[in-house]
Amino acid sequence: MTSFAQLTTTKVGGSARAIVEANTREELILAYSATARHDEVIVLGQGSNTVVGDDGFDGTVILVRSQGIEILSDTGTQVDVRVQAGHNWDAFVLWAVENGLAGVEGMSGIPGTVGAAPVQNIGAYGQELQSVTLGVEFLAEGDREPIRLDVSELGFAFRTSIFKQGRAGVILSVDLRLTRQFNALSEPIAYEQLASALGLNLGDTAPLTHVRELVLELRRSKGMLLDASDPDTNSTGSFFMNPIVRASFALELPPEAPRWPVDDDGQLVKLSAAWLIENAGIVKGFALPGSRASVSTKHTLALTNRGGATTEEVLELARYIQAVVQSNFGLILQPEAILVNAEL
Ligand SMILES: Cc1cc2nc3c(=O)[nH]c(=O)nc-3n(C[C@H](O)[C@H](O)[C@H](O)COP(=O)(O)OP(=O)(O)OC[C@H]3O[C@@H](n4cnc5c(N)ncnc54)[C@H](O)[C@@H]3O)c2cc1C
User: Does residue 124 have its Cβ closer than 6 Å to ligand 1?
Assistant: First the structure.
């Protein structure tokens, strides 16, 4: 039996009762519609945002492996593409960069599949999936025919969407709009750390290939680029979400706690989960006594498997972090990773 330790990047979790691999869109439709009628189903891409309990899953896992990038239209400055759900996200970004197309270069190196990208509206280094998404092709649970969902119907917000909020089904493909800038330049850089690594100011542009290289370098230095030889990458990336709180609550926090406005009237602000964890006294590399799970040695937000850890060891660490942050700052960090048969 295949275990989730082999199917997920945190390399933890028990076994699945059955596994089906879908290598084309048609196989995915067949596998999902046939299986979901009589069995519990988990749709899995590369398992880079999923943590499954040690008891595993008494149902069928459908592994999404459909591939392909199709150009739908090209106006010269705007290129619309359709990417199949199982296509590796970073392979798609590389394709875009090599073809001089901007819009996703800041999201270079995010692990996972294109089909999973809308689930939590992936984002990094000043770019977010929602700003390039046109829509998805979706097969809803119980349906035989796929439908098209426009981006306006996807409920995109910070690291979430209707899919993360419980809309059951499978994303078959994603339509995205990329742009062709003069001289294969990037979109304006919208992330301070990336701008300064490039020696530029916020809002400047740079060659796409240069932006991609820098992003990959930054990600590697933080253990945020999958690397079989680096145990800091045996994770789901950020385990916790940056909390969004009322501005009045944020006023109670130390003034040096980073915060960013998220709405126009300034009622809500986003806090840095990494800052909260570090300032609650949890250092990089922290582990509970005897545990094989630890905070990454490079990034406080990643909970990593140092070799042979169980899901329970990862969750114990997560619960400990939640408790310490709560007692210091009065808020409960929520997981960004998707927990299956596992609870905090
Ligand atoms: C080292 C590391 C760094 C990371 N950095 C970032 C980052 O910078 N920004 C960011 O946003 N995320 C980041 N992540 C999280 C992860 O890469 C993304 O969430 C990614 O989109 C997950 O893709 P996946 O194919 O591995 O999804 P999986 O873990 O396989 O699935 C995630 C969820 O989506 C569902 N799902 C998967 N495919 C489909 C489909 N076709 N249709 C419907 N539902 C589906 C699954 O059921 C599950 O609920 C990081 C993860 C790691 C390990």
Answer: yes
